[in-house]
Amino acid sequence: MQVKQRCEVLEEQLVDLVVMAMERSENDDASNDECLSQLLWQHLSSQVIYFVLFQFASFPHMVVSLYEKLKGRNLNKGRDHLMWVLLQFISGSIQKNPLKEFLPVMKLYDLLYPDKGMIPMPDVTKAQSTHGVAATCIWIHLNKKAQTDTIKPPRPTPHALQEHCEFLKQSLNNKNLSLNDYKIALLCNAYSTNNDYFNLPMGKLVESIYGDSKHTTLLPGNIVASAPTQPLAMSLLDSLTVHAKMSLIHSIVHRVIKQAKSKATIAQSPALIETYSRLLVYMEIESLGIKGFISQLLPTVFTHNAWGILHTLLEMFSYRLHHTQPHYRIQLLSHLHHLSQSPQTNQNQLQLCMESTALRLITGLGSFEVQPQLSRIFNEPGRPGFLSNESEELNRVLVLTIARAMHVTGVDSFSSTWPREILNQIMANTPHNWSPNTLANFPPSLAEFFQAQPQHRDDKNTLKRNVEAEYKKWKTMANENDIIAHFSMQGSSTVFLCIIWKNLLEENRGITPIAYKVLDRLGPRSVSAHLRTFSDYIVSELNLNSAGGQHFHKAIDSLNEMVWRYNIVTIDRLILCLALRNVDEDARLCYLLIHMLLLKPQDFKSRVQEFVKENSPEHWLQNNWHEKHMAFHRKYPEKFYFEGIQDLSSPIQHQYLPVYFGNVCLRFLPVLDILLHRILEQPSLTTNNLNLFEKILESLGVLYKFHDHPITYLYNTLHYYHKILVQRAAYKRRLVTTIWNAHQEIRPSTWFLTEDYQRFSHEESLEWVPDLDYYVRIIGRLVDTIDGKSPFPNCDWRFNEFPGPAAHALYVTCVELMALPVPGNVVGNSLLDVVMKSSTQLQRGKVMSWMNAVGLVLTALPETYWISLNNKIVETICSLPLTVQGGCQPFQVFNFTTSQTVFAEQHMTYLLALSHAVWHHAGIGQLSQLSVFLRDHLKPVVKTEEQFLYVCHLVGPFLQRLHSERTRSLMELVVELYEILVNVDKSCDHLRYLDPITDFLYHIKYMFVGDSVKNEIEKIIRNFRQALTLRLRFISHINLEEAMTPLAPPMST
């Protein structure tokens, strides 16, 4: 069992952050609800509550520390905010802890509330009123605790709070409380530990979102749901204490579970589902929130076969939750693969939702999450199945995600063993091949794995013969039962969709009822296998009949009818399947087919245009999502079952499941991500002389307005396909500007691209070589953001792609730099020059902040960018004064802090400090390359002691990290240091720094490597000059007599 332990350092940091927030509040406009101070307090409150509730910080100690740091400061403007933060913890934990633990709050009250008269009641129509009354709420909870424990209150409620107390008492007598102001929130916050009073305001909240059986509304598919459609506003939820929010979410979960068990026919109200989604974003109620969602609610719903509720929960996860910890997402993925094996879930709408959710979960994994999460869960007992047993598409997408993660993190440079077991299991479940164009972008070890395991595929002629044979049976068999039995037989040929398409082409009479019955008997999981065969078949058939002409267009029309008229396959599943097939030899035709399906007919384009025009992705600010959702589905109803199936004489009936958030446009977004990547992999792919990549972005790029992680998608694309895109500046600019333009209506122009790049995006020419001032500006923006002076617009980071402004600034900076029409090494050199050449323009006291920013950016870019640092190091080591023995005082010159303080720093001093900043932020995959850098680039050029000491200063700070994370790389680096010292020993007549050098080598032995490299270095030490060998004899275990034996004199140069 994990034991929570108080962390005093964290505790003090939290206290300092609170004090800083108090200082900011003194200078802030309190009437502005959207001001930076408000956002700061909101975020700070969440952090303090989380760490105190989970016992990483002690509440009494924090309050005493706050009192000491605020004493005498006269920081009163933020006092209500501070009391609000304290109220959060007090209301949630006072019932379980002794009263004395909360009494230090009284000292804070005396300090911050010296008011002699009564404090007036704040305006209850504003959310700020809940903060204004927080101090009063604390006193009410303290008095209730004293009453419960039958002890005398330490002191009566202060006279200054009397007006607040009276207002709250009067409000309790008002039975007609309204949601138009914040009285309900005030009462919930004040009386959450007093059930006699708490039930009234909380009852009003749940009543407003639960509804009753008398008033109903409709969901898509004519599903009847309870009537309330307007969720509780985020401003109201933010105004509730953690304790009140926990009561609310507990009530909602209890109601959903009760409905799941009772098999209720009326679906939950849209207001309840949206409100539940909003409550799940609160990190401080994680145990009842997302943790309960994954570990309690989902299993209960599945156990009771409540498929409608399951569908709803998956929709919430797909379209409403923004920041969910990775282990919860992997846990849900395992649940989904387990659920997909159940016969009860083998129904079209639910299967489509589960596959779509799984696709989002896989593609949404961060590059630095993939290895720790997948390797952890794969090695757990019972090995939960985060791999699909049947879906080739999901497993292919997982392989692509692993490839991207290995590339971005540089993991392939030191180890490729971790994914091997996972890949072996994938190939056992769903054997498949990858095209040479895709393998060319895989990390080498991944490409070698698949090249070593080629999978047999039926050739086109064999597939054609199979389809012809089955089609002949379809045409000749007479008995309906025999036809259904034959074509729906498990393990038989998966060509039934090919037969339907061929029949549509030749008969032109629509689809027969028997075909519907076969499809229904097969079920969606089997139809997926038929879809893969169909994707291969249609490409080969159109190829055999040549692209173009009447037959070709008729074939495309029949395919469109299967999607939009007969609802046999959905557009997102069909395009995903086509895009992921191994069709290098028919690539042009395959993507022409995709082009004809997506862009020629109006069916999908009109849906996209309508949805984007009428809706906003900022769902947390809306109260009318349901109305817009229903308007779209009324105009474009989505049928999940085969057209006409309800009209058959057979007893086949299908129950639609509630749809609260989703539609075909949102489902298509992850497919669009994958499709664009696959097009990038195809060299010189054109369609009717028009670039397919640009045509798709032109027609469908507006969908990126609703993308969960648009900047991360850009970052991953530009990073992973850097080698391809280096020659395709137009592709880069088009992709970046498409996503920027998609957000123009909802974001200020400064949210992403700099003004420089915005000007470039409007020019016809692709020629642009930014000057150094451009790089100073873009790095300066990041420096300011990290320093707390963000130039980016304020927003609710709980619903943002990134959790804070600094992360946002880093990613948008990297995206813009990778999108420049400039080679990576040029950009890398320019970033280094921001510090190396522009240091006179920077404030001397902030130089380290600029180095830190450059380090963050460089290590987040592909290798061709950050390798520029290695070249500068080699250049510096090969230049004066390091190349001259005795040319400088290394221990003074190399110390950046000391030399900068006295204005004595040199170029090499700056480079050394900048190298440390870069490598400090490097991933272990990048850092493990240090030994290779020493071997291939530094060893041939280092001849003097000064050069060797510079190398030691370069690598010294990173020995501990290599020792902890990559011991093999550390040992290789140490051996290289000794071999470099051989060159120095041979090249120098006299060694002036013998003692510091040997001290450093002993430090390495006793702190990091021990005897692990003894065999390699002993041979080297024996060949050093006598003085050096003598000093190093305890490393090599050479006895004194051997060390004193004279060797041939060292050669001098």
Determine the oligomeric state from the structure: single chain
Helicity level, as a percent range? 55-70%
Structural class: mainly alpha
Helix count, DSSP H or I runs of 4 or more residues: 55
Strand fraction equals under 5%
Write the layout of secondary structure elements.
Blueprint: H1 8-26, H2 36-53, H3 59-70, H4 79-93, H5 104-112, H6 129-132, H7 134-148, H8 162-172, H9 183-191, H10 195-210, E1 216-219, E2 223-226, H11 234-238, H12 242-262, H13 270-279, H14 290-303, H15 307-319, H16 326-339, H17 348-363, H18 367-378, H19 392-409, H20 420-429, H21 436-439, H22 444-451, H23 460-476, H24 480-487, H25 496-507, H26 513-544, H27 549-565, H28 571-580, H29 587-598, H30 602-614, H31 625-635, H32 664-681, E3 686-687, E4 690-691, H33 692-700, H34 710-720, H35 722-725, H36 729-742, H37 755-761, H38 772-786, H39 805-819, H40 824-836, H41 847-859, H42 863-877, H43 890-893, H44 896-901, H45 907-921, H46 924-927, H47 930-938, H48 945-955, H49 959-965, H50 967-987, H51 994-1009, H52 1014-1022, H53 1026-1031, H54 1033-1036, H55 1040-1044
Antiparallel strand pairs: 1-2, 3-4
Helix pairs in contact: 1-2, 1-3, 2-4, 3-5, 4-7, 7-9, 9-10, 10-13, 12-14, 14-15, 14-16, 15-17, 16-17, 17-19, 18-19, 23-25, 24-26, 25-26, 28-29, 28-32, 32-33, 33-36, 34-36, 34-39, 36-39, 38-39, 38-40, 38-41, 39-41, 40-41, 40-42, 41-45, 42-45, 47-50, 48-50, 49-50, 50-52
Keywords: Nucleus, Transcription, Transcription regulation
Family: Belongs to the Mediator complex subunit 23 family.
Main location: nucleus
